[in-house]
Amino acid sequence: MTGTFVGMPAFPEAARAALADSQLRHNLAHATSTIRAKRARVVGEVDNWEELRVAAAAVKDGVLGDLERTLVQLEESLTANGAVVHWARDAAEACAVVAEVAKAHGVEEVVKVKSMATQEIGLNEALAAEGIAAWETDLAELIVQLGDDLPSHILVPAIHRNRAEIREIFLTRMAAAGRPAPDDLTDEPAVLAAAARAHLREKFLRAKVGVSGANFAVADSGTLVVVESEGNGRMCLTLPEVLVSVVGIEKVLPTWESLDVFLRLLPRSSTGERMNPYTSTWSGVTPGDGPQEVHVVLVDNGRTNALADEVGRQALRCIRCSACLNVCPVYERVGGHAYGSVYPGPIGAILTPLLRGTGDPQTDALPYASSLCGACFEVCPVRIDIPEVLVHLRSQVVDAHRADTVPRPESLAMRAASWTFARAGRLARAERLAGVGTRLAGRVGLRPWTSARDLPDPPAESFRAWWQRTDGGRRG
């Protein structure tokens, strides 16, 4: 199952390296603060924002509680509309379907709408292995692809890059992938966007196969929905002769009416806009209009495992808005690459372990990549209690190591604490030794821990000693 970037270190090591990159921290702080401010302004305009959050969570929970029936209805609706529906248990099966469709049409390249699902399953790499180039058409995804980089944000994959870096990528890498950047390219955003637009237009016009994800899939009408800000998605969805949409099974909604609340929550939470500039919907095949062959790949890839977790299943409400990333103090300082996961930030810290399961050192580190401040829950448009799930997953990681032959330091510390607190006499002796022990630990034993945390000085006198010394003790 694809879910992490292979070969990357676990979060503690990767975060330490990221913190040493001052340019990265500057880029992240500027970008996330800008998005946060935009979101706060447009959310503040909505009087019933909390009611919308509650309504969206209820819709999602209702679907997850009746997922099998709703998915069957979606398949029936899509099939009636002329689409071909494929079911994929994992990443390998999903990638194989897309590759098979592309090869059936003899193409050597496809154009793609920005899609977290296709990143999750490693589609670009799988197609490349079959000799098929998958071209990203979202501006930020294009920057990442041309720079031979990895995405670091759900909404803005190139958030870790500044304008000067993007200009350099376009000048040095764009020609090898198609139309080159103009020689007089500057780092003005409008100029960079124009260069990307001219580069991509050639690909749009010659592409026979397009690949998309979907923000939502409406079961009663068989309608898929993509919201975006640039228009590249609209081009991918309408110009190619063949369209393949890769959709996680949790993206399904029951009715067209239920879509309303999400179209009010998503743009405000993600881009800080009242509505997305482009909202594209398609329902199978329409003769003479748009792709004349439509495939929909419904992907599990660990989602049923997450659904079986009574605490963690709420993560499947996620609508990929990235609001939690933009308020997270940890993400703002280390960026998305430190998580080593396709899904970075707070939502990635819970979603990746839920999809993959525990047991891998890289994945097991993710639930600890948080201060548990709760800001992520406050901004989540579908009310995912990320801190609750983080603590729940931490317990799973700990439980998985209880039978280890060599106990972990944390386990030994907790056993020692349990033994000490079990008897009053032991606790009293520990209190008397606390002053010396704490000072010694601060200087020697816990130095890696105390280098980033304050270790309070113990009081000069314990409560037990005070009680015995005062009238309270004598009255006792």
From TrEMBL:
SUPFAM superfamilies per the UniProt record, alphabetical: 4Fe-4S ferredoxins, NagB/RpiA/CoA transferase-like
UniProt domain 4Fe-4S ferredoxin-type: residue ranges: 315-384
Segments forming domain Lactate utilization protein B C-terminal: 407-469
Taxonomic superkingdom: Bacteria
Keyword Transport set for record: yes
Domain (LUD) ranges: 73-299
Keyword Translocase: no
One Pfam family, short name: LutB_C
Keywords assigned: 4Fe-4S, Electron transport, Iron, Iron-sulfur, Metal-binding, Repeat, Transport
Protein name (database record): Lactate utilization protein B
